[in-house]
Specification:
The protein is of the alpha/beta class. Helices cover about 50% and strands about 10% of the residues. Strand 5 and strand 6 form a beta hairpin. The structure holds iron/sulfur cluster.
Length: about 475
């Protein structure tokens, strides 16, 4: 991935200047967040299952070399091919080679953030291959020349009217903003693609080490069609996306859909074992699984390795007040929200170092994470790493120094407190500052800042013990 031309702050300003997009994002994310909350409230063993899921992810990653080897052996014994790709270049080159060798003209793709991460579509299209996204949201993103703004809901930023206009312009159909009509248009268009595609490409939600099975989870059935109808299926899997056993898979599936959309299970949970065998009537003639590193092995074994537990449910995006305000595009990365703010700098480098600041550290992301990743803790570690490099702006470093000196000295602290109380009394409006000065004004541009209480806890304590 390369950084976009605009700076992070410019992208945020653009997002905040688009109230229609902001409304669509906040409404969509909040609805998913509420659906998740109801589904979890009805799930009797939620906390036990969550603990078990975390344990499964921790165990898998602590013996990843063992489970990867077991998975690859089992895939090959089922008749599949395994390719180990160090980075995006190796992965794209391998898939291009298969396509060229097999005279592939048309690729039907299921939604995969990993293939977005490595720009696989662009790479295949540059070789003259027609690639069609078959997930409804991804198809709309592709038609409109846009980028997905959410890891599970690619068009969270769009309204129905905008989708209707895209269809009218790109598919030459009458305008409609009725979801059923729009779905029918896509269904008719997609049937041909599924039947004609030479190659299907998908991501992998989970690989099962003990059997070499792949689990693909979709709500539209397109994952099933692209992995069974074309003669070749290529599945691109992040090297961390394994579970040891089928029983472990069942634990993860109980949490994935509930966390993502509030469903008990996604509509289609496909477990695929190798290519078509002689006595079978459907399935691909060839199955290729590309196991992609692309920076993940550098995270393993570090103090930030917990981020690799992530199962890409999107719950932390839906819970995040910052994501509600700025949406996914402002992050400038395929991975947005709290998970993206940790993952992007680790996978894509220093151009994404500001992302960990896109958090209020309210902890909502950790609360909803089905594998209990300490996202606020990881964001703080990344901020500390950046601050240790001495790259924070001068005003911030100076402010931190003044804060440290003041809070370590009781006389200075008392003086600062009384000054703050005086300023609050004079300038605050009903307990709130609506406009902060200098570099702090960014804070009050979107919300008010609380004034200092007129009596500190200690002052109240002293007063009550004297009284
Ligand atoms: S970090 Fe947790 S909540 Fe966020 S996408 Fe990953 S698994 Fe879901």
């Amino acid at each position: 991935m390369t950084a976009t031309e605009l700076s992070f702050y410019d992208r945020i300003s653009d997002a905040l200047a688009n109230p229609e997009g902001q409304l669509a994002i906040a409404a969509g994310a909040r609805a998913k967040h509420m659906n998740r909350a109801s589904a979890m409230a009805e799930f009797p063993n939620m906390e036990i299952t969550r603990e078990r899921a975390r344990h499964i992810r921790a165990r898998t990653l602590s013996q990843l070399d063992y489970f990867l080897a077991q998975f690859a052996d089992n895939v090959e014994s089922l008749g599949g091919h395994v390719f180990w790709a160090k980075d995006a270049k190796e992965c794209n080159r391998y898939i291009n080679e298969i396509a060229r060798a097999q005279d592939v003209q048309l690729v039907a793709k299921a939604k995969s953030m990993l293939t977005e991460e490595i720009s696989l579509n662009e790479s295949l299209q540059a070789s003259g291959i027609n690639v069609v996204e078959t997930d409804l949201g991804e198809f709309i993103v592709q038609l409109s020349g846009d980028k997905p703004s959410h890891i599970i809901a690619p068009i969270l930023h769009m309204t129905r009217q905008q989708v209707g206009n895209v269809f009218k312009e790109k598919l030459n159909v009458p305008f409609s903003d009725d979801p059923a009509t729009l779905n029918a248009v896509v269904r008719a268009h997609m049937r041909e693609i599924f039947l004609k595609a030479d190659m299907g490409i998908s991501g992998v939600n989970f690989g099962v080490a003990e059997s070499g099975a792949l689990c693909l989870v979709t709500n539209e059935g397109n994952g099933r069609l692209i992995s069974t109808t074309p003669r070749i299926h290529v599945a691109v899997m992040g090297m961390e996306r394994l579970v040891p056993t089928l029983v472990d898979l069942s634990t993860m599936l109980q949490l994935l859909a509930r966390s993502a959309t509030g469903q008990k299970l996604s509509v289609y949970s496909n477990v695929l074992c190798g290519p078509r065998r002689e006595n079978e009537s459907d399935g691909p003639e060839e199955l290729h699984i590309v196991i992609l590193d692309n920076g993940r092995s550098q995270i393993l074994g570090t103090s930030l390795a917990e981020i690799l537990y992530c199962i890409r449910c999107g719950a932390c995006l839906n819970a995040c007040p910052v994501f509600h305000s700025i949406g996914g595009h402002a992050y400038g990365s395929v991975y947005s929200g709290p998970v993206g703010s940790v993952l992007s700098p680790l996978l894509f480098g220093d151009s994404w170092n500001l992302l960990p600041h896109a958090s209020t550290l309210c902890g909502a992301c950790k609360e909803v994470c089905p594998v209990d990743i300490d996202l606020p803790g990881l964001l703080l570690k990344l901020r500390a790493k950046e601050s240790e490099k001495g790259e924070s702006p001068l005003w911030m470093r100076l402010g931190q120094w003044i804060y440290a000196v003041t809070t370590c000295n009781p006389i200075l602290f008392g003086l600062a407190l009384r000054t703050g109380q005086l300023i609050s009394r004079i300038l605050a409006n009903e307990g709130w500052f609506t406009k902060l000065p200098g570099p702090l004004q960014g804070w009050s541009a979107q919300r008010d800042f609380p004034a200092l209480a007129q009596s500190s806890f200690r002052q109240m304590w002293d007063k009550s013990s004297k009284g």
